[in-house]
């Protein structure tokens, strides 16, 4: 018996599909905004915003399809990715006093162009998958995949530790969105497990940041490479 | 086409051209008034641009000794390009005589032609500031043009035609639907038009500091009626861009016929929308600071990115409807 079955459903919600598409488009836009963002505090705020849009789109899917377990997913997203993780990240940035400009490896227009290429690849890869899916959100699989790849690109192009972790978290956002759009979300057990993993990962990263900084006086992970070369 | 239809379309076309020529300086004046009010300054008179134009037309033309004939021809060419561009944009009605002759791509070409001539004229006399302004103008132009074309392509894919009249007709009549692609294209278009018209994040139209000038630096050598024509052309360009934005993204209220009643209603809608648009422009200019010249590639790269995303999102989410 589903404990969340009492929550409201509106099967004939007008424009539901279009609203979900709009959320998907905003997710993609935010992924690009994060890719281009230099400042660390704004980056964390953008990450929180992406979580909020993800929460909203999950709630719309739950409302329009009657998949009441999705309300649970939306709630987890809200608590974890909109409130808790950004709060931890803000605290970390404050404690490490790393409010400096984020330095990127490539210049930003080049990164953006590479990002457009990735989006095209993701859309093409997702085309056959979305033809088999029977959900009202199937068109957004391509966008979810693009978000994952853009977050991956962000992890590659950044050399500081905090933006890389934000990229990792944002990749999880994309995966979550892909699961919602392809199959109306994963089973609750898996979702809870993933959420817990991300939270634990965040705590581990937090400890790790302090260790890196104590060792090298900087959060630039290129120092780690030099260290391994020396040994 | 019957003779009657031809005559009414010709009349509508001429009316549109006249309205563009008459209202363009007023739009510039309105933006200045709004901006002064938002910045808590005492606003200049609304009709100041007309007085300026009149004053400049009365004055003598001073030419540099080494100015070639191109320098003298350029203002007329630029002015006619901009007047034609303003006439091509469907502002009052979609039933225009010129509509089948030129589409959105030709419009971008017209803007490019004017830009080439103003840059050549800027370099013609050979002063340092002239060529500096011309180079910056070309830098901005070559980055803004692809983004503008992509915006037009998005609207063309949605409506299935590159003709501006067809695009506006289609967009004004489809049933209500949320188009994320049009929202992206709208933001991209706003960024491009800010750059193309020398507005604040890219260029400051009221600057007196030569080192930061772009548009002003090119026309430093002009005087008298030449300067008047160029200033009028600049305000026509702003008018054409505003009307394009209105036509593509807020097309409701445009007339589909050439009847005088429908045209009058469309005229009222147009003036109202232009007033709101001018206020929004003043708001953008007040809220933003001018960015460094070498940041503009980033700004326009973002506009291009948004425009490409608009096409991709349309193809994926809206199924190429």
Care to describe what's here?
The complex is a heterodimer of chains A (about 230) and B (about 325). Chain A is mainly α. Chain A has one domain (about 15-230). Chain A has eight helices and no strands. Chain A has helices at about 15-35, 40-65, 70-95, 110-130, 140-155, 160-185, 190-215, 220-230. Chain A is globular and about 55 Å long. Chain A starts with 15 loop residues before the first helix and ends with a helix. Chain B is mainly alpha-helical and about 325 residues long. The model of chain B has no long low-confidence stretch (mean pLDDT about 90). Chain B is built from eleven helices and no strands. The longest helix of chain B is centred in the N-terminal third of the chain and has 36 residues, at about 5-40. Classes of the chains: A mainly alpha (about 230), B mainly alpha (about 325). Chains A and B meet through helix 1 and helix 4 of A and helix 7 and helix 11 of B.
Secondary structure: elements and pairs:
The complex is a heterodimer of chains A (231) and B (321).
Chain A: H1 16-36, H2 40-65, H3 69-96, H4 108-132, H5 141-157, H6 161-183, H7 188-216, H8 222-230
Chain B: H1 3-38, H2 48-58, H3 69-88, H4 104-124, H5 128-159, H6 164-173, H7 180-196, H8 215-218, H9 224-249, H10 260-287, H11 296-317
Main location (chain A): membrane
Organism (chain A): Rhodocyclus tenuis (Rhodospirillum tenue)
Transmembrane segments (chain A): 15-36, 43-64, 70-93, 105-126, 132-153, 165-186, 192-212
DSSP strand count of chain B? 0
Which oligomeric state applies?
heterodimer
- Biggest beta sheet summary of chain B: none
Please trace the helix and strand order of chain A, writing H or E for each element: HHHHHHHH
Shape of chain B: globular
Strand content of the residues of chain A, in percent? Answer: under 5%
Largest sheet of chain A: none
Shape verdict of chain A: globular
Q: Could you give the distance between the termini of chain B?
A: 31 Å
């Amino acid at each position: 018996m589903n404990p969340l079955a009492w929550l409201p459903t509106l099967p004939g919600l007008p424009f539901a599909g279009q609203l979900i598409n709009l959320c998907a488009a905003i997710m993609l836009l935010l992924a690009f905004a994060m890719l281009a963002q230099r400042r660390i505090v704004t980056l964390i705020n953008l990450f929180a915003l992406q979580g909020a849009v993800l929460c909203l789109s999950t709630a719309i899917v739950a409302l329009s399809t009657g998949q009441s377990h999705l309300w649970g997913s939306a709630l987890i997203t809200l608590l974890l990715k909109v409130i808790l993780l950004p709060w931890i990240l803000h605290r970390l940035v404050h404690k490490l006093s790393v409010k400096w400009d984020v330095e990127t490896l490539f210049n930003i227009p080049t990164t953006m162009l590479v990002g457009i290429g990735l989006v095209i690849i993701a859309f093409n890869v997702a085309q056959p998958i979305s033809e088999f899916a029977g959900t009202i959100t199937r068109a957004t699989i391509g966008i979810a995949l693009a978000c994952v790849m853009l977050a991956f690109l962000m992890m590659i192009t950044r050399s500081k530790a905090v933006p890389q972790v934000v990229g990792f978290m944002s990749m999880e956002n994309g995966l979550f969105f892909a699961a919602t759009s392809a199959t109306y979300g994963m089973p609750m057990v898996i979702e809870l497990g993933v959420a817990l993993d991300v939270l634990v990962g965040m705590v581990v990263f937090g400890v790790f940041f302090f260790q890196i900084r104590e060792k090298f006086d900087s959060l630039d992970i290129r120092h780690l490479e030099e260290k391994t070369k020396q040994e | 086409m019957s003779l009657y239809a031809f005559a009414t379309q010709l009349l509508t076309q001429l009316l549109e051209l006249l309205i563009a020529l008459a209202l363009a300086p007023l739009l510039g004046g309105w933006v200045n008034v709004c901006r002064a009010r938002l910045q808590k300054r005492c606003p200049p008179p609304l009709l100041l641009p007309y007085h300026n134009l009149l004053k400049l037309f009365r004055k003598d033309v001073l030419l540099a000794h080494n100015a070639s004939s191109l320098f003298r021809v350029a203002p007329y060419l630029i002015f006619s390009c901009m007047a034609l561009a303003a006439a091509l944009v469907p502002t009052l009605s979609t039933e225009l005589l010129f509509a089948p002759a030129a589409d959105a791509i030709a419009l971008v070409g017209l803007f490019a032609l004017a830009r080439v001539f103003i840059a050549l004229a800027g370099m013609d006399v050979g002063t340092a500031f002239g060529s500096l302004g011309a180079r910056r103008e070309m830098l901005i132009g070559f980055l803004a043009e692809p983004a503008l074309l992509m915006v037009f392509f998005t609207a063309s894919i949605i409506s299935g035609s590159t003709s501006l009249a067809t695009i506006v007709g289609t967009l004004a009549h489809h049933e209500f639907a949320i188009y994320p692609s049009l929202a992206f294209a709208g933001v991209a278009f706003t960024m491009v038009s800010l750059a193309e018209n020398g507005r604040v994040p890219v260029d400051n139209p009221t600057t007196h500091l030569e080192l930061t000038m772009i548009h002003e630096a090119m026309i430093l050598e002009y005087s008298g009626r030449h300067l008047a024509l160029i200033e009028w052309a600049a305000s026509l360009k702003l008018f054409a861009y505003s009307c394009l934005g209105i036509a593509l993204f807020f097309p409701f209220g445009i007339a589909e016929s050439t009847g005088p009643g429908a045209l009058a209603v469309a005229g009222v809608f147009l003036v109202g929308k232009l007033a709101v648009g001018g206020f929004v422009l003043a708001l953008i200019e007040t809220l933003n600071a001018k960015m460094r010249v070498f940041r503009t590639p980033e700004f326009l790269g973002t506009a291009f990115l948004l425009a490409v995303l608009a096409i991709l999102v349309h193809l994926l989410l809206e199924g190429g409807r």
